[in-house]
Specification:
Radius of gyration: 21 Å
Order of helices and strands: HHEEHE
Number of helices: 3
Low-confidence stretches: 14-26
Number of strands: 3
Distance between the termini: 67 Å
Shape: elongated
Strand content: 15-25%
Mean pLDDT: 80
Largest sheet: 3 strands, mixed
């Protein structure tokens, strides 16, 4: 099998660069860097919730999109709901918290 020519390798590289450029962030999609940032924020929020004895974190879900954290799930008291929001807001990288936690 022969090696591809320089012209073919450059063409393939150009196509790859063009395809990756199409992966830029849009209002409804994240870039890979934003995705990893959001994954890190989600993990830090969940860890902080689990470390706090005031919140029943096992039933709280955390989702992050472009620094906006959404909390959902269930807690036992209004104070736990409020405290979960405070904890999420205190995490570095969080721009906004939407607290959709319900009281059971």
């Amino acid at each position: 099998m022969t090696q591809p020519s320089l012209k073919h390798r450059l063409a393939a590289t150009s196509l790859l660069v063009a395809a990756l450029a199409g992966c830029a962030a849009t209002p409804t999609r994240e870039s890979s860097g934003e995705y990893f940032d959001d994954t890190s924020i989600t993990a830090r929020v969940k860890t902080s919730l689990l470390a706090n004895k005031d919140v029943s974190a096992a039933e709280v879900n955390v989702e992050t999109f472009k620094g906006r954290v959404q909390l959902s799930g269930f807690v036992k008291t209004p104070d736990q709901r409020r405290r979960a929001g405070e904890i999420a807001r205190s995490v570095k990288g969080v721009n906004e918290v939407v607290n959709d936690i319900l009281i059971r």
